[in-house]
Amino acid sequence: MRYIGIDFETRSRVDIKKAGAYRYASDLSTDVLCLHAMDSETGEEWTWYPRSGEVFPGTLAESLAEAVLIVASNAEFDKAIWEFIAAPVYGAPSLKHEIWYCSQAQCRVNALPSALEKAARALGIKRRKDPRGNALIKVLSIPDPKTGEFNEDPKLMVEMGEYCAQDVRLMMQVMKLTRWMSATEHRDWLITCDINERGARIDTDLARLCVAYAAQERDEIAKGLTILTKGVITKHTQSVRGRDWVLEQCKHVPAVRSIMTVVKNNEEKRSFDKEIRARLLDMEDDLPNHVVDFIDFMDDGNKSSVAKFQRMLDMAEIDDRVRGAFVFAGAGQTQRFASRGLQLHNMRRDCWNVEQTEELKARMGRNHAINAVMDTLSQLLRPAIIPAPGKKFVVSDWSAIEGRVLPWLTGDPRAEVVLDIYRSGQDIYLHTAATMGLTDSDRQIGKVTTLALGYQGAVGAFTVMGKNYGLYLPEKQVVDIVQKWRRANPWAVDYWRNCERAAVRAMKYPGEYVQIGRCQFVAVEGLIGTTLCGILPDNTVIQYPDARLDYVQTPHGGKTVVSYMKASLTPKADEKEWPRHTLYGGLIAENFTQGTAGALLKHSLRELDDRRAPVVLHVHDEIIMEVPERQTKSRAELLQKVMETLPEWADGLPLKAVPKIMTRYGK
DNA sequence: TGCGGCGGCGCC
DNA sequence: AAAGGGCGCCGCCGCA
Predict the structure, then answer these.
(1) CA of residue A138 to C1' of nucleotide B3, angstroms
(2) Distance CA A191, CA A328 (A)
(3) Which nucleotide C1' is nearest A262 CA?
(4) CA of A246 to C1' of B6 (A)
(5) What angle do CA A338, A418, A584 make, to 5 degrees?
(6) What's the average model confidence in pLDDT over A650-657?
(7) What is the C-alpha to C-alpha distance for residues A613 and A632, in angstroms, rounded to an integer?
(8) pLDDT tens across A245-303, in order?
């Protein structure tokens, strides 16, 4: 397929890291230094320096008119620069939306790192990195820190053009070594661009008040900590120093050391995180008073999420909207979306309602005191996202999506019992409790069991999940629960085992499609070494790059397992080989389940795109649209219909998604 | 001074 | 044999 690979080099007074690509591109100080382009078919290359008065190269315009795609690394950035600056200011031809294609998105669907350099390294592309790159950016792309002037040195500009050309060539090499996005994946990426361009509106007045209150509280905590520790700790963010200080102050209390001890990667470490602080406060009476006060200060301060308010303000454009928050296929292992910049996927769920938010906002506006400042502020994060005047949010999420998809994916007739519980609207947690011989009063146990054990998790998974719900059980009882759940749900246990076997079989017979429930495995030789592909019911491909069969020793002999390159872990500078992971049944079941839930979301987003529904946010199992007030009813009906109507590939999957209307984002 | 590692936070 | 994993951001800390 003929395409034009491009890369812009730009300069600006805006810090792109802080403000994000969209605010960067729309700022008046942002300008194009050069554009490099290469035709994939003819090999012809162009470097265009528009600031020197060069007109857009005519032969490049001709190639663009004939090419099917225009490809860039993080194409959303290049698209924004093209549309905000290159076309309107310098006369580059205008391009249609559909022509854009992102090589970073292509890397992510291949489960490789997004960033060009990292992807090239993961692919083993041997090249000399141009040492001038970073230096040139520092000199030409940001104003001189002393004079505030931009450097216009024409010689350096030409060097920049050469550096830019190297990046384009490298990108095109990466394109050759990886699987291209399917038409559906490309469309999903384009839909993500639309959502990112729409942006989410921020209550910037509220955000500014929160920033001010957080700063004041931070200073007070700092004062308290400094006095308490005689200057050893001066900020609540000094977690390592704080940890060591507590250990020192409590060395005569042996229990403290043991509570603070955790095992990570087979190594003993001390930790002082939220959960450990809570356990320390449980034995308050045995601790020195000043240590208890210290823990209270750290607890109060450690709502790090309040930093998001500053991020909102940094990224908000003139219309108070934050753009560019969503990353298509950001999660390489499941192909789910990720969120970047202002991370919208991890905002505290437990939050104030509209009335409480307005009251707090009014109090802060009058400079009145508020209680438990940091905690209160972090509960204002979601409500700080608001619709434009005259509009409302229409919101819906799928009920227990993973709990439904997992049994459905197995295709096991014995899993129908579980699916029937969902179909009939019964309480799955009570059902789980009942199958283990527990009563209705043990619903909480049923809930933690359902959430924690589906992916081969055992005592550890249950205990961690239980803590989130304030459930603490003796280990013996947890062992019993795990055993009972697995006996009551043999479809799950068999599925884990069969997933693992299917992966190994597919690796042994490359090219052969191995069916496993409603999914398939196939090993593709010659793609990033050998890539093990998991194919989901909608044909989404989950890739395990550079997969190998390994033989591992076990207490009863040995067995064959599949290992693969883990893109999300970057190797240390001195390590040659990329970090690897080993597949096991529960992990495959989880990747497939989350991937299929993501496929449902992408399907709904396409349906909504067909109907021009203005989606502004989504969070894995939740969709938020911003619609004019008089349309809320019809749009809510549409949203429910789209989310509850099964795609043709999901026959028999019970789905439920009841919509809500909101005037601020909430839970 | 800049950068990467690491501990910590929070959501699905 | 057993195994919770998927994300991204903030801030400190040590190193170059």
Answers:
(1) 15
(2) 9
(3) B7
(4) 19
(5) 50
(6) 96
(7) 11
(8) 888 888 888 888 888 888 776 677 888 888 888 888 888 888 888 888 888 888 887 76
